[in-house]
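Hi R.,

Here's the chain you asked about this morning:
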Amino acid sequence: MKLFKASNGEEIFIIDAHIALWDGSKENQLNIHGEQFISCFYDYHKNLSPKEYWWSKDEFVKYSPEKLVNDVFMEGYVDMAIFQPVFLKEFYKNGFGNFDANEELSKKYPNRFICNGTFDPRHGERGLEKLEENKEKYNWQGVKLYTADWYGNSKGYKLSDDWSKRYLEKCQELGIRNIHIHKGPTITPLNRDAFDVADVDDAAAVSLN
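And the predicted structure, written out as tokens:
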């Protein structure tokens, strides 16, 4: 590992707390919403980045493991990075993120990645069982919650929902301690209201009781 050196000579261990391997390619798009999402994502990239750091649209739509390793560890200053995946199964055939791809890269580069997972409380009892299976398979220490993800006719969920509380309780039971709540920015076609942060306080208060 190459520890970053501050101006005073102090070595600093750097953790990137939010990275992803994503696939928004045409081959993986399930419908027009898949195209809308990755195009809006790319527009954020171009409009918020200096021109010299722009990626081409072709390389942006599907982030390769090789490019991620180069960007984060070789060209960047990161010593360890945390995968924070999302489903987006209503937009992409195989989802936007892939647990197995993250796990494979983690095994290829030991001690460089932490692989968090995710869950969707709208999956009910089946999802609780799957969460337990995934904890056993991947040994997740944390989960990323993307409350604006679509599922069937639902265009988002709240952490104050009864099912959300059951899933958070299951996380406590399984030893999944790190809950990464993703709120925004709004990306087409997701709903702004689903990124509202008001539900976070309720979930946090319940976890303290």
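The mean pLDDT is 94.

Let me know if you need anything else.
M.
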